[in-house]
Amino acid sequence: MPLVKTNIEGRFADFLYKADVEPVLEQNKLLRSMEQTKTEAFYHYAKIPNEILLMWFNEAQMAGHDVKYMSPEFGEIIDKKLKDPAWKNLLVGGPRHRVGYGD
């Protein structure tokens, strides 16, 4: 269960949001070991806890990036983060095989 604390002073508000992401990381580990079907349209690439997405969004805002949450620009930031070895535990891409016609 997430812990949410707020502190409101005048026109400013501080929010603290904490949650246990360990269950998601354990599920990612399981998904990495499972074979995935490779289709033209869909491939499960990563499972990112909302807490981490929010942290990345806040980092982007603090760095001066004028991005909206879940915009294509924020997607580019997510892609860059997922290429960083520090975040490899968020990737779920296990072995793949192709279904249907093609190579």
Structural shape = globular
Note poorly predicted spans.
Answer: none
How are strands sequenced across the largest beta sheet? Answer: 1-2
Q: Largest sheet, if any?
A: 2 strands, antiparallel
Q: In angstroms, what separates the terminal alpha carbons?
A: 45 Å
Sheet/helix structural class = alpha+beta
Number of strands: 4
* Backbone CA Rg: 17 Å
Mean pLDDT: 80
Helix content: 25-40%
> How many domains make up the coordinates?
1
Give me the number of helical elements.
3
Order of helices and strands: EEHEHHE
The percent range for strand residues is: 15-25%
Task: Sum this structure up briefly.
This protein has 103 residues and is of the alpha+beta class. 35% of the residues lie in helices and 19% in strands.
Features:
about 20% strand; two-stranded antiparallel ribbon; two-stranded parallel ribbon; alpha+beta; 4 strands
